[in-house]
Amino acid sequence: MSYEQNNNFYVCLQCLRRFTIEEAYDLDFTCPECGAILFEDNNEELINVLSMLIKNIKIKLKSISQTPIPAQ
Ligand SMILES: [Zn+2]
Questions:
Q1: Ligand 1 centre from 11 Cα, in Å?
Q2: Can you tell me the distance from the alpha carbon of 43 to that of 28, in angstroms, rounded to the nearest whole number?
Q3: Residue 25 and residue 50: Cα distance in Å, rounded?
Q4: What is the C-alpha separation between 12 and 58, in angstroms, rounded?
């Protein structure tokens, strides 16, 4: 019996680490690396879309933080 058959993996969308459901329970569904919430990894398409969105948000945040705030 393998974990892949049950598909009971959880994934961190920030660093894309994967955890078994037992590990996820132990971690309170929070990534030990970055503190993000773990999502059930049973929908690859959704995971891909979400991780892409997060990447885009990060890029936007970076460009915002690099823009000097004009003096008012
Ligand atoms: Zn993480």
A1: 8
A2: 21
A3: 22
A4: 15
61 part of a folded domain: yes
Count up the domains in the chain and report the number.
1
Please report whether residue 72 resides in a domain.
no
CA of 72 to the centre of ligand 1 (A): 38
Return the ∠ at Cα 43 (arms to 41 and 46), rounded to 5°: 105
Residue type, 38: L
* Global confidence as pTM: 0.55
Token duo for residue 65: 């933080």
Q: Tell me the per-residue pLDDT of 46-59, one tens digit each, with 9 for 90 and over.
A: 778 888 888 999 99
